[in-house]
């Protein structure tokens, strides 16, 4: 059995309310550990609570998704308390979301940018990596990281579900970021060149469950155990063995999350 770490999933989300324990057991029994990422106050707290039910293999990230800023707002003391927990291994998911009209006006964009900086400062305070969400906003994202260079940790974080360009990847690599890819790469070849370019020692695997299930589960609810399909495709694209992908991505995840 080859251990893998699903570096970005959401087993605390409502889609798993009916069979959450079975889903997590299925992953752990198949050698898959996981980091459940929060996207608002409620499910960040739920991620911490869930992680603490398991001695090992289940961890949490806490943060506010950029589209949530107008819904629940930023609460520094709340997220600070969560970040202190021994099972909190990252800050996020946080970032910028301009897809489908999000961040359409400058006021919305400014709120998202300010929120991202608050996450950067929290990550600095607790020396934890960022888990970064970004869609159609890589120019602004990189500009913020450049302006906040002194507040980024030596291992600044992970660009989750990377959808930027090769040029974006180069700049973020130079800043020290790691990258994850999920089920999308099992049926979309648009990212092959970027995956081939990024060194294996800077890659992690994820599911983003319950979303974007990989082949052969496409169209169904995704779950952490399915990350094995992402690892298989990553091995194919990188032209290395499945075993090497399992070993190196796990080393990478343990390093950046300090697991």
What is the residue-averaged pLDDT?
96
Give the SSE string.
Answer: EHEHEHEHEHEHEHEHH
Number of strands: 8
Quote the distance from N terminus to C terminus. 19 Å
CATH superfamily: Metal-dependent hydrolases
Low-confidence runs of at least 5 consecutive residues: none
The number of distinct helices, counting runs of at least 4 residues, comes to 9
Largest sheet: 8 strands, parallel
- CATH architecture level-2 label: Alpha-Beta Barrel
Total separate domains: 1
Strand pairing plus helix content: what structural class?
Answer: alpha/beta
* CATH fold node name: TIM Barrel
Shape: globular
Question: What amount of the residues lies in strands?
Answer: 15-25%
Strand order of the largest sheet: 1-2-3-4-5-6-7-8
- Radius of gyration, in Å, reads 17 Å
Portion of residues within helices = 25-40%
Q: Could you name the CATH class?
A: Alpha Beta
Description:
The chain contains 9 helices and 8 strands. Strands 1-2-3-4-5-6-7-8 form an 8-stranded parallel beta sheet. It has one domain: Alpha-Beta Barrel (TIM Barrel), CATH 3.20.20. Helix 8 crosses helix 9. It has 259 residues and is of the alpha/beta class.
